[in-house]
Design brief:
Layout (H helix, E strand, L loop, with lengths): L1 H8 L2 H9 L2 H8 L46 E2 L3 E10 L1 E6 L5 E5 L3 E5 L5 E3 L14 E6 L3 H4 L1 E10 L2 E12 L3 E10 L10 E6 L5 E6 L17 E6 L15 H5 E4 L3 E7 L5 E6 L5 E6 L35 E3 L5 E6 L12 E5 L4 E8 L2 E9 L4 E6 L5 E5 L6 E9 L1
Parallel strand pairs: 1-22
Antiparallel strand pairs: 2-25, 3-4, 4-5, 5-6, 7-8, 8-9, 9-10, 11-12, 12-13, 13-14, 15-16, 16-17, 17-18, 19-20, 20-21, 21-22, 23-24, 24-25
The protein binds calcium ion (2 copies).
């Protein structure tokens, strides 16, 4: 209850602090004033942190710290080369996806799926599943199938209410042109029901459209990210029906293992395939530990054994170089930027951005642009926009649409970005 109270009563900054903190620290924060949120800046990127103990609810992996010295991606702000036109407002929006005709679907965490038509009118879509709307939970991602024009299928991820808390669920339904979901079916559940935010919940279709990837956050529970029998802190690779995809690294093992693509993630909010077939992923880390990863099948990305950040509770975590057997991030941020959604730009309106990753930064209040060259990622720009950015998407004409984060009771605006 204390955790819930803190989530609902506090400022965006407090929510930021909460999402990094282990539950033990969250309980501490809940009893204090919201203004007592810990500082997110001022931590050296390279100073070695003495290893004391891991959080009490994490196993002691017995590693010794070796500080990370490369890959820190923070840049000074650049002047945005775009103008921002407000074109709508939503209630606690979380994600958006374009339809082939240029219409837009927007999820709102309280459990509403909105359909913005090309003429700008917005209506509610009926038949959305019940969600647990609390903290970072609720109706989360929406994905439009590559063959939507013929199938009219969409996928939704959300916090599903369960007797003992909630579970990340993935559902599929047909979007009737009249504005309702037909044949909604839950095709996958994370299990490990309980409390905790950080669902991840990002849905990405494979380049051939025949399977999908789903990110599943570790829900502030640490150890499950390394437990191969729990679908938390993982990237899953599923068939379009929600079964383990054939050819997965542990396909023969059955259960959660058979569905697992990679392990050791914290709170992965963004995934993108580049045209060369590489899968890039970003995730919210603890204090000073946001990451951009190149995701390879069967690899372990280290959480909570290692992180280039440390816990908000003050407990250090050994940095990635301490365990070279675990995959290090290609880039990391300290101070954190709190990455929300991520997209790959491919349009004509911003020629310089073609092939760049664009990351929505929540606490960073910016669009972060990353250039890619094969398996190398380079920070290119941080465009300060003065608001928490929840998600980004590319419109048919190559404009970038930006969804502002909105707290309970206050709207999150939708903007169209075009060159200045
Ligand atoms: Ca990591
Ligand atoms: Ca660390």
């Amino acid at each position: 209850m204390l955790v819930c109270r803190a989530f609902t009563a506090c400022t965006p900054m407090m929510e930021n602090a909460m999402r990094f903190a282990p539950l033990t620290a969250a309980l501490l924060f809940a009893g204090s004033a919201c203004s007592a949120a810990p500082q997110q800046s001022g931590q050296s990127a390279t100073s070695p942190a003495p290893l004391k103990t891991l959080p009490r609810n994490a196993p002691d992996y017995g590693v010794v710290n070796m500080p990370a010295t490369t890959g820190r991606a923070n840049l000074p702000d650049s002047a945005p080369p775009f103008a921002m036109a407000p074109i709508g407002t939503f209630e606690q929006p979380f994600a958006m996806a374009f339809l082939p005709d240029g219409g837009l679907l927007v999820t709102e965490k309280p459990g509403h799926l909105k359909w913005r038509a090309t003429d700008g009118t917005v209506r509610d879509i009926a038949g959305v599943p019940a969600v647990e709307s609390k903290g970072q939970g609720g109706l989360l991602d929406v994905a439009v199938t590559p063959d939507f024009a013929s199938s009219r299928l969409i996928y939704l991820s959300y916090a599903e209410p369960r007797p003992d808390g909630s579970s990340l669920a993935l559902a599929r339904a047909r979007l009737d042109p009249a504005g309702k979901l037909d044949g909604l079916a839950v095709i996958w559940r994370a299990g490990s029901d309980g409390i905790g935010g950080q669902f991840g919940a990002n849905i990405l279709f494979a380049p051939d459209g025949k399977s999908l990837f789903l990110s599943s956050g570790e829900r502030q529970r640490f150890a499950p990210a390394q437990d191969l029998d729990q679908a938390l802190g993982k990237i899953l690779h599923l068939t379009l029906d929600g079964n383990p995809a054939p050819g997965n690294p542990m396909a023969a093992a059955g259960g959660v293992k058979a569905a697992t693509w990679s392990t050791g993630h914290r709170n992965p909010y963004g995934m993108v395939f580049t045209p060369d077939g590489r899968l890039w992923e970003e995730e919210m880390g603890p204090r000073g530990g946001d990451e951009l990863n190149l995701v390879l099948p069967g690899r372990n990305y280290g959480w909570p054994i290692v992180s280039n950040g440390d816990n908000y509770s003050g407990v250090p975590i050994p940095d990635h170089p301490s365990r070279p057997d675990l995959e290090a991030p290609k880039l990391w941020w300290n101070p954190v930027i709190s990455p929300g959604g991520m997209m790959l730009y491919s349009g004509k309106m911003f020629p310089d951005w073609r092939g760049s990753l664009l990351i929505a930064a929540l606490s960073g209040k910016a669009i972060v642009r990353i250039t890619l060259d094969g398996d190398k990622a380079t920070p290119a720009a941080t465009y300060a926009v003065g608001m928490r950015v929840r998600d980004l998407a590319q419109a048919l004409d190559g404009a970038v649409w930006l969804l502002e984060d909105g707290e309970r009771g206050s709207g999150g605006r939708l903007f169209r970005l075009s060159p200045k």
